[in-house]
Design brief:
Elements (H helix, E strand, L loop, with lengths): L1 H41 L2 H39 L5 H26 L4 H13 L3 H41 L5 H28 L4 H6 L7 H29 L15
Length: about 270
């Protein structure tokens, strides 16, 4: 639920920001146009120049503030990536490189924007803060999705190791003459649940990780359904853990040479 709220808030803040900045730029351009028309009517050149400079100054101020906000968010994201214990080394390296690239690009854009002396230059570069970087629409939720996928892959590996141990116990019990049909069915279902979850986690990792701002520009729904898929995988893993407990209890009740099995799966999910 925390992740859903986070991504929802990210989506809403992105839409609000895009709308707010667009409205600001449109309003500034409109104000400049009105000022120019008024100047032509009154033949007041100095007033037009002053209004134009104020429009540019306003755009530069707004743009600089938005770049700074993104740089702060990326710095915080860098810290979270570094501290994420279940990220694979390759995923961690990829995401850190991407954050660094975004930070470098925004820093260069800040310099370019500050050098603008026309309304067109200022407005175009300010708009690129949103269209070329997609920090809130893509980068932040992307990192969160990859982290979730890697977290679940750790659980999948642990549960898969447990299925091997359980299969050995079931086989031993069967050899001892116990009826293990139900236990074997439960184990088969457990393995299927783990495999289903693993397929989802791997797919999220491989398809989400390489996404770039241009992919989001081409398709604003590029991340649609990914969180739901990961939640489905989480449910599969919870079901698998529950089956593990059932199997362990069943083996203990047989009273055969099935051996003891650790029930450490209880907190896997």
């Amino acid at each position: 639920m925390k992740t859903r709220n986070l991504i929802t808030r990210i989506g809403l803040s992105t839409a609000a920001l895009a709308l707010g900045l667009s409205v600001t730029l449109i309003g500034m351009a409109s104000a400049q146009s009105n000022s120019t028309n008024a100047t032509a009517a009154t033949n007041s050149g100095s007033s037009s120049s002053t209004s134009k400079q104020q429009t540019i100054a306003n755009i530069l101020s707004k743009g600089s503030a938005e770049i700074n906000r993104r740089e702060t968010s990326l710095s915080n994201l860098n810290t979270r990536i570094t501290g994420a214990k279940n990220l694979t080394s390759s995923d961690r390296s990829y995401l850190l490189d991407e954050v660094q690239t975004e930070e470098s690009g925004l820093n260069n854009l800040k310099t370019t924007l500050a050098a603008c002396t026309t309304v067109t230059c200022a407005a175009t570069n300010a708009e690129s803060i949103i269209t070329e970087y997609r920090v809130y629409a893509l980068v932040l939720p992307k990192v969160q999705l990859v982290r979730m996928a890697d977290d679940q892959q750790v659980i999948e590996t642990s549960l898969t190791t447990l299925t091997t141990k359980l299969q050995s116990r079931i086989t031993n019990a069967q050899t001892a003459g116990d009826n293990v049909a139900t236990l074997q069915t439960d184990l088969n279902t457990m393995i299927a649940d783990i495999n289903a979850a693993a397929a989802i986690s791997k797919n999220i990792e491989t398809t989400v990780l390489p996404l770039q701002p241009s992919d989001y520009d081409a398709n604003h729904s590029v991340l649609a359904g990914d969180l739901t898929q990961l939640q489905t995988a989480r449910t599969d893993l919870q079901n698998a853990a529950a089956l593990a407990k059932t199997i362990i209890t069943g083996l203990k009740s047989l009273g055969s040479n099935s051996g003891s099995t650790s029930s450490g799966s209880g907190n896997q999910t």
